[in-house]
Amino acid sequence: MIVASNNNQSGNGNGNGYGYGYQRCVCRSNDQLSLISAYPDVAQCCSIGGPKMTFVRMLILMPLLLSLLANCGPLALPPPPPPPPPTPSARSAQSLAILRARDQCFRSERISPNQRLALDRQQYSNVPYVHRYVYCFWTRLQLWHDGTGFDPMRIVESFGGPRRLNLEQTVPAINGCNAHARRSARTALDWCYGAFVCVLRTAVGDWYRHHMQDVINGNA
């Protein structure tokens, strides 16, 4: 049996108040007083839907929920996107070798900034530092040998092959300049420089100047 009475006072002199807007609920079973509590609504008094029973239900349902989650397993995630392909270098290996040889010779031959600028502008004056640089540059590229001079076939292969350099023009021009410069050279440096400036006066030399400018400017 449920007995409910309104109690809108915050309390009485005997300390039996339950606060404003609450009702006093008395539950009796077999005419025995079983529970006295304060509820905002009489319908909640001694019902199985009260806070105590709700907590009990949660304890009962928790193992079931955990079991369902375990059976479902982890959520399937989409596979990560493949990594982007590596970007190929815009510079060819031959161009990088040319720049590396140039920079190494600038340092080893102690070429000043003004002298470097002149060499990058393809100005090959007949002065000692130019002789040293030209010899250093072609020796580092392994395209010059003190015993035989410039190697025309290796030069063709190193600068793109026959598709870029005409063999019928390149090989005779280089061999002819090797022979011509050797007759008047006193040292290997003089011979290398003389053969080089000789080639620059040919069609092969014109192609070389344009190609070197493209390499220096990052266009090849």
UniProtKB/TrEMBL annotation:
CDD domains in the record: PBP_GOBP
Coiled coil: none
GO terms assigned for molecular function: odorant binding
InterPro entries per record: PBP/GOBP (IPR006170), PBP_GOBP_sf (IPR036728)
Pfam families: PBP_GOBP (PF01395)
Name by which UniProt lists this protein: Odorant-binding protein 8a
